[in-house]
Amino acid sequence: MNQSVSIARIDTMRAASRDIVRQLGFMQKGLAGTTLSPSAVHTIIEVGYGTVSNASALGDMLHLEKSSVSRLVQKLTDDGLIEGTLNPADRRSRQLGLTKDGKALLKSLEDFGRQQMKAAFAHLAKEDLTKVETGLTLFARALRGEDSRVSTPNAVELREGYCPGVIASVVGLHASYYAANYGFGAVFERKVATEMSEFMGRIARPANTTFSAFLGGTLLGTVSLDGEDLEESVSHLRWFIVSPDAQGMGIGNLLLEKATSFADAAGFDRTRLWTFKGLDAARHLYEKHGFELIHETRGTQWGTEVIEQEFERKRT
Questions:
Q1: What is the C-alpha to C-alpha distance for residues 182 and 304, in angstroms, rounded to an integer?
Q2: Is residue 142 part of a domain?
Q3: Which of 16, 134, 147, 198 is most buried, by the most CB atoms less than 10 A from its CB?
């Protein structure tokens, strides 16, 4: 760790930070082309991405007092932008989600932000863009007091196909995450373990693959493409998950890029996936990579009643 950063260097970075804040419009009355406060805009984005799911987590992320968060959530609820639903894992708490109007606003915020970045970076060389991306990621982790060494892209190893321990690791990630957040139990864990074990018996065939992101020996995330269990020319995207410890590292985006590229190169006309309503961060990534919601219904295939969703992506 570097403990000898000069005051001159610190002041240079502080000046750059202030300039970024001004150029992004944080000093204006309305942020990102809206009439909302900065904290309200961040709430729409983070709730929409699924980064936070309740008021307590929102307060921790935005560094706001409980009373301030309550007023913020109440205002956005009154404005018809967010809504609270019972948490199936803990009925004493409520999960936050975006309404239809909130999702429309999130899309507008994304379009605004992407256009703003696109215009700013238009004159930069590719290698400079990489420096900006890496630098901003490291800066954010440093402000959170995290070790920057685990966030560098080169530290993450992407492996394809079966590797020792991957079945157990993937089942463990799914079981612990969905039990803690959605109340899934033994039925779900057995289903993942049984079906993934069967799939790994076919992994060597050219229509099937698994991409896994590792940091050292730790699994950060995974996704699989099964080209044999649906109809001809249709691939099945399965077991997509990112470890909570790897959030914000771009692992999910990297895995879906690999998965969709594989499906296209293998000649699949369509790729389908099944998930359930409420996984907003994952849905955001699915839609970013060309998936569209085509069907939803109530079901219990994972052992708990949820609104099951089917997404489909056509080959580009």
A1: 8
A2: no
A3: 134
CA–CA distance, 32 with 27 (Å, rounded to integer): 11
- Six token digits for residue 89: 């894992």
90 with 163, same domain? no
Same domain, 185 and 117: no
Residues 264 and 171 in one domain: yes
Same domain, 310 and 162: yes
What are 207-260's pLDDT values in tens digits? 999 999 988 778 889 999 999 998 889 999 999 999 887 877 788 888 999 999
Which residue range(s) make up the domain with 186?
Answer: 156-314
Is the pLDDT at 271 greater than 90? The verdict is yes
DSSP string, 263-277: HHHTT-SEEEEEEET
Q: Are residues 231 and 117 in the same domain?
A: no
Number of separate domains in the chain? 2
In the β-sheet with 218-226, what is the strand arrangement from edge to edge?
A: 157-160, 209-215, 218-226, 234-242, 270-276, 306-314, 292-299
One domain for residues 119 and 160: no
CB atoms < 10 A from the CB of 305, how many? 12
Phi, psi for 220 (deg, rounded to 5): -95, -30
- Domain match, 190 and 308 both: yes
Q: Where are the beta strands (DSSP E) in the chain?
A: 82-87, 90-98, 157-160, 209-215, 218-226, 234-242, 270-276, 292-299, 306-314
Q: For the chain, what is the mean pLDDT?
A: 84
Mean pLDDT of 164-189: 89
pLDDT band at 151 (very low <50, low <70, confident <90, very high): very low
Would you say the C-alpha torsion 190, 303, 48, 236 has a positive or negative sign? positive
